[in-house]
Amino acid sequence: MVIHYPYYRTFIYRSYSGPYTGVEDNLEWILANGPWYAQKVVGNVWQADYATVTSANISFIDWGDAIESVDPKINRPYRLELALYSNQYSPMTAYTMTELAFPSSPQETQGTNTTTYESNYAAVASPLGRLAVSEVRRGCQLSSLGMVRSGRR
């Protein structure tokens, strides 16, 4: 079952004027495609379309910064961040977004320029999400991998 929710209550009032710390490599594009409106600012509210579903097939995974840029050490904590995406056969409205300042930090600032587009991909979020990590050895058939639940395979 799919329930599609277009979001009609958009209020975007306060434009972002900087600083653009940490995004200097992308600054020319940011300035050429503005004005930008930062998230988490009083007066700026927008939401892309979303749907509530009972199940979703994952089309691809976007691995977060930590796994892409850090050399993990054995026996040391390692932050694993990922986003799951599902191919939607009915496009949904999305907002153009970019990082505006302080990427990959607690002060990271992202925003929109209010440009929307139709996307066939949706981020998947669930309060029931689980991740199983398995060692895959050379010659192993992927079909032989299973998920362990409650001590059973």
Average pLDDT metric: 80
Q: What proportion of the residues is helical, as a percent range?
A: under 10%
Strand residues, percent: 35-45%
How many angstroms separate the termini? Answer: 29 Å
Q: How many DSSP H or I helices?
A: 2
Number of domains: 1
Radius of gyration: 19 Å
Strand order of the largest sheet: 3-8-7-6
The number of strands is: 8
pLDDT < 50 runs, ≥5 residues: 147-153
Shape: globular
Broad structural category: mainly beta
Largest sheet: 4 strands, antiparallel
Element order, helices and strands?
A: EEHEEEEHEE
Give a brief outline of the structure.
This protein has 153 residues and is mostly beta strands. It is built from 2 helices and 8 strands, in the order ββαββββαββ. The radius of gyration is 19 Å and the shape is globular.
Topology:
Blueprint: E1 2-5, E2 11-12, H1 27-32, E3 37-38, E4 44-45, E5 50-53, E6 60-63, H2 65-69, E7 82-101, E8 109-124
Structural account:
There is one protein chain. By secondary structure, this protein is mainly beta. The strands form three sheets. Strands 3-8-7-6 form a four-stranded antiparallel sheet. A two-stranded antiparallel ribbon has the order 1-5. Strands 2-4 form a two-stranded antiparallel ribbon. It is globular and about 55 Å long. It has one domain. The chain has helices at 27-32, 65-69, and strands at 2-5, 11-12, 37-38, 44-45, 50-53, 60-63, 82-101, 109-124.
